[in-house]
Amino acid sequence: MKRSEHRILTTHVGSLPRPPALRDLLVRQDRGEAVVENGLSLCSIHHRAFDQHLVGVSPDYRIRVSARLLEDDDGPMLELLKGFHGQSIQLPARTRWRPDRERLAERFERFLAGA
Hints:
- The protein is an alpha+beta fold.
- The chain folds into two domains: 1-34, no CATH class; 36-114, no CATH class.
- The chain contains five helices and four strands, in the order ββααββααα.
- The strands form two sheets. A two-stranded antiparallel sheet has the order 1-2.
- A hairpin with a 5-residue loop joins strand 1 and strand 2 (15-17).
């Protein structure tokens, strides 16, 4: 069976679209790059904001919220998200489990370009 680049096989009769983040992970995994240091633990809301370049994490482990969100006024949930701007992420105690700064820098460049 041929592996789809754009769909996730869920049953023998159907499939779901593959989100871009999953496709990126699978490509990195194929290149041997799916490692702990290449991941961030995010809830689904923050993960979606991260994928859409509304929120980024700089190589110095600081959370950045896009200017368009910082300027928006859309209720208490957005205000809560804006409150994270400039704060440091919580890092694992084990250094080897921390996000890799070079990978963060690569992703942060995309955040800056999309913000």
